[in-house]
Amino acid sequence: MIQHTTRSPPHDPQPDTPPPPRNARAPPQRTRHTHPAPSPPSQTRVEPHRVPCRDRGHRHPGSARAWTRRRVGLLDNVERGLERAVNGVFAKTFRSRLQPLEIFSALKGELDANTRVLSRDAILVPDRLTVRVSRADFERLAPDGSALVDQFVRDLRAYAHQQRYQFPGPVTVTIVPDDSLTVGMLEVDSRMSAGDVTLVPALEVQGRVHPLRQGVTTIGRSHDCDITIADSAVSKRHASITRDGDNVVLRDLGSTNGTKVGGERITLLELTGPLDLVIGATPVRYLLAPKAVG
């Protein structure tokens, strides 16, 4: 019989230590995490993304600004198309009578949709507007036709002033019957009375535009003035405007209530662009107004 004897390594004497309990948990082991050192920044240059363009001398048509303009224009066209569709569908369905407010809203939309930009400060809109309605609506509106048209003209002038629009001539609104339209439907046609126009300095006073000729133009309450203002706060000879080529100068003529710009009285002022001023108590606007050529 062969016996295997295992020699134990030398054992250092240890102090007597009580054995751990049978169900005791081992103390948690702490693990040291070693993070790798950050790598040096890359020296590779990242080229910016470029959109290929055939002609680098012009802005690429896909730029954000151009895309925004196209998107806004598209939304405007879609909105007008939806308005026409809704107008037709609901008018045919409910056959409601046409209201003056609907006509005025359509007239404003016609101006907005047919602007002609002459310069940064001059936006031309049609001055000849024709509203076509059903025969039943036309007969219902006929008794108040003239008063209604006059109100439309006044409101359109106020709206154009608010939007900085200009008319090439006096505004006219005409309402005519159209047998192809049902009750509640309307369509608006427009055109400009002048074809080719040029811009000339002018004053807009109490809804009327007065082109300024070369030389001196007098302004006051007297009928002897070139531009007469019916306002008791305006002096008989209140102010004058001198136009010498492209130079335009406003001068107060020692008036009682003064000529004011931005609430401040002025005695002499060069007019270089559109400007709102007050003569006496009357608001006046200097602008570049369209004038027919020829």
From TrEMBL:
Pfam families: FHA (PF00498), FhaA_N (PF12401). Residues 217-266 form the FHA domain. Residues 46-55 have a biased composition (Basic and acidic residues). Keywords: Phosphoprotein. The keyword Aminoacyl-tRNA synthetase does not apply. Gene3D superfamilies: 2.60.200.20, FhaA, phosphopeptide-binding domain (DUF3662). It comes from the Bacteria. Residues 1-64 are annotated as: Disordered. This is DUF2662 domain-containing protein. It comes from Pseudoclavibacter caeni.
